[in-house]
TrEMBL record:
GO terms for cellular component: plasma membrane. Residues 30-159 form the VTT domain. This is DedA family protein. Pfam families: VTT_dom (PF09335). It is found in: Cell membrane. It comes from Paracoccus yeei.
């Protein structure tokens, strides 16, 4: 995958960065931790503009999250509750859990969206509860843009500073990303095993 990301950005420039960041937010296995440091390295080499690279990466990231946000809105809370009533073990949720999650998200949704944009796997999934809870679009967009711009900027500048060693960013961040994903899967499986209807 690393070679494919490199060839896409080197061949397509800003469009490659944009499309990869859209894809990264729709298909989480494509890591921003590889995309943006490489783009930062190319900016440091003079092939791309740093500011434009961060802007394009942020736009791609934001656009990718919108699909999940609108999926959450399309499913809706009532439909999800009916699904949970029938298939609670699969979701590890009862209808009452959805009420609790909605209440929590209404209290902490802005922070969840902002910080969630910087956490592997969560940055894709956080858009769904935002849509489910009918978080106002402008609010979702604002915190998504802020969180995405910060994360994209940090990764891009890291690639710029490290020059040819930009891949070190992925070497340090990627194991942590994998650990988070493994933890999310392990927690889900634990909940499936322990789940009891209530």
């Amino acid at each position: 995958m690393f070679d494919w990301v490199v060839s896409t950005i080197e061949g397509w420039g800003y469009l490659g960065v944009f499309l990869l960041m859209v894809a990264e937010n729709i298909f989480p296995p494509i890591p921003s931790e590889v995309i943006m440091p490489l783009a930062g390295f190319l900016a440091g080499r003079g092939d791309l503009s740093l500011a434009l690279t961060i802007l394009v990466g942020t736009l791609g990231s934001v656009l990718g999250t919108l699909a999940w946000y609108y999926l959450g809105r399309a499913i809706g809370e009532a439909r999800l509750k009916r699904f949970a009533a029938r298939h609670g073990r699969l979701l590890t949720l009862a209808p009452s859990d959805i009420d609790n999650a909605r209440d929590w998200f209404q209290r902490h949704g802005a922070a969840a969206v902002f910080f969630g944009r910087m956490i592997p796997a969560i940055r894709t999934l956080i858009s769904v509860p935002a849509g489910l809870s009918n978080m106002p679009f402008w609010r979702f967009l604002l915190y998504t843009v802020l969180g995405s711009a910060l994360w994209t900027g940090v990764l891009t500048v890291a690639g710029l500073v490290l020059h040819e060693n930009y891949a070190l960013v992925a070497d340090y961040v990627d194991p942590l990303s994998k650990l988070v994903i493994v933890a999310v899967v392990a927690i889900y499986l634990w909940r499936v095993i322990r789940w009891k209807p209530h």
